[in-house]
Design a protein that fits this description.
Blueprint lengths: L3 H9 L3 E4 L6 E4 L3 E5 L8 H9 L3 E4 L3 H9 L12 H12 L3 E8 L2 E11 L2 E9 L4 H16 L3 E5 L3 H5 L3 E4 H13 L6
Parallel strand pairs: 7-8
Antiparallel strand pairs: 1-2, 3-8, 3-9, 4-5, 5-6, 6-7
Helix pairs in contact: 3-4
């Protein structure tokens, strides 16, 4: 069982948990290179701008945290395995109840079709995972998150490990030492997510 105090301490020190799909053991990760999204240089795609203008999706925050984390843990088309074990899910649901973990939900015609969740500490948001059951649903949630973070004065959006999807969202890889400096600076600032 993951202790909440240990989990929060790990984030402050640049670690995050992942479970191995084969044995569901939890491992603490601290990549040599970290994926981050610079809030000032983030630019939504034309498709996201168009969908926002048309109000195709509605977006909420913390309305369906448990449904979002389950959506993120569900098998995907190209990858049936997940790093979000039952133990990890349980810990993040506790963090949500304590006000550290948050979800952004995308809705289409009243149905939850995508979203993301992560941890907010200081002026840092640690993005954990996102899911999409309809094209662009997770990107709309991500766009909402970035706008919210800018409005609240956040300094760091940690995307953890780079992948092609994050690259499309504007994430870049930085060295571990640079990440730790950004993290230390962000943790000094006090921001309430909502």
């Amino acid at each position: 069982m993951i202790r909440i105090d240990d989990l929060l301490k790990a984030y402050r020190q640049g670690f995050f948990p992942m479970s191995d799909p084969k044995d569901e053991k939890v491992y603490w990760c601290q990549p040599y290179k970290r994926a981050v999204v610079y809030l000032d240089s983030y630019k939504p795609s034309r498709d996201v701008l168009r969908l926002n203008r048309k109000k195709e999706f509605s977006v909420t925050c913390n309305k369906e945290f448990v449904s979002v984390i389950k959506g993120c843990a569900a098998p995907r088309k190209n990858d049936p395995e997940t790093w979000i074990s039952g133990e990890i899910m349980e810990a993040y649901i506790k963090l949500h109840r304590l006000g550290f973990a948050h979800s952004i939900e995308s809705w289409y015609q009243g149905e939850l079709v995508g979203g993301l969740y992560g941890i907010a500490m200081g002026a840092a948001f640690f993005g954990e995972s996102m899911f999409s059951r309809r094209s662009y649903a997770s990107r709309i949630a991500f766009d909402h998150l970035v706008l919210h973070m800018k409005q609240r004065g956040y300094l760091l959006l940690d995307a953890q490990i780079m992948n092609p999807h994050l690259g499309k969202l504007g994430a870049v890889e930085i060295e571990h030492d640079e990440y730790m400096l950004l993290l230390a600076h962000a943790l000094k600032k006090k921001i309430v997510f909502l």
